[in-house]
Inverse folding.
């Protein structure tokens, strides 16, 4: 990509937006795309996605803080319950008549020591999340050098179906039904590719300080690019993700540009036509 094109990719920051719905409206109302020949993406698309994921990380920190506070509070209440039941049980003259009260001692004791053991771990995790949120922005590693494009219509529906089908095999996905419906109704999404990360609209973000993508393969019949990620401490297993490409990007020139950008080898399972 030429220096002039790189200059056009400099992003104009947008003001901080706390309303998640407003960010989705911005994504939905933006008709432009990143082109491999002319960089005409809306200059704030990357900033909007950055804001979406920043809000998501902030909510994660808030929720972790609430759970930590709840764990500490319950530990105190169970400790008080343990102390009261222990004192009461040892002061009564006939313990057998209050066997249930004495049995509560064991229950309160187990719950108290369990929460006392869990709370420090949750405190450390909460502090780590807040420090990571405050000091590290995953999008910083991909801003200087990236390619992106917009997928819409049937390809976007295939991308959504692939993502949610893969998620359902691992996790319970009931909480994301609303997001899935909204993205289906929008009808399009943005894909950002970089040597240090990949962003699939609001669905997925993988980033790292080093190169994270190992290799790729293009399936011409399905108009799909399959990428394999390097293993690291955060992802000790080998991850793969499939990206459904627009038809106008399935050509040798585009694949060569993606190969040069990501610095990987991309195998092609069919002979692709040249781009004229």
């Amino acid at each position: 990509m030429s220096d002039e094109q790189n200059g056009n990719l400099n992003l104009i920051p947008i003001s901080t937006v706390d309303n998640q719905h407003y960010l989705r409206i911005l994504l939905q109302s933006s008709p432009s795309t990143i082109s491999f020949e002319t960089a005409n993406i809306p200059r704030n698309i990357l900033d909007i996605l950055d804001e979406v994921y920043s809000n998501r990380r902030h909510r994660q920190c808030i929720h972790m803080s609430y759970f930590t506070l709840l764990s500490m509070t319950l530990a105190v209440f169970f400790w008080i319950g343990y102390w009261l039941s222990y004192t009461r049980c040892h002061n009564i003259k006939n313990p057998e008549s209050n066997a249930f009260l004495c049995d509560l001692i064991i229950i309160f004791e187990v719950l108290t020591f369990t929460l006392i053991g869990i709370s420090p771990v949750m405190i450390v995790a909460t502090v780590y999340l807040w420090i990571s949120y405050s000091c590290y922005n995953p999008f910083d590693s991909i801003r200087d050098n990236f390619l992106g494009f917009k997928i819409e219509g049937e390809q976007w529906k295939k991308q959504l179906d692939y993502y949610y089908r893969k998620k359902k095999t691992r996790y319970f996905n009931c909480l994301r039904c609303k997001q899935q419906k909204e993205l289906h109704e929008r009808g399009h999404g943005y894909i950002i590719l970089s040597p240090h990360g990949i962003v699939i609209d609001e669905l997925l973000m993988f980033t790292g300080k080093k190169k994270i993508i190992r290799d790729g393969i293009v399936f011409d019949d399905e108009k799909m690019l399959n990428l394999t990620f390097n293993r690291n401490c955060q992802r000790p297993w080998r991850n793969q993700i499939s990206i459904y490409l627009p038809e106008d990007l399935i050509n040798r020139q585009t694949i060569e540009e993606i190969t040069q950008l990501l610095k990987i080898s991309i195998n092609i399972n069919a002979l692709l036509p040249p781009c004229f």
User: Anything to note?
Assistant: Residues 94 and 102 are 11 Å apart (CA to CA). The chain has two domains: 10-28+40-136, 141-276.
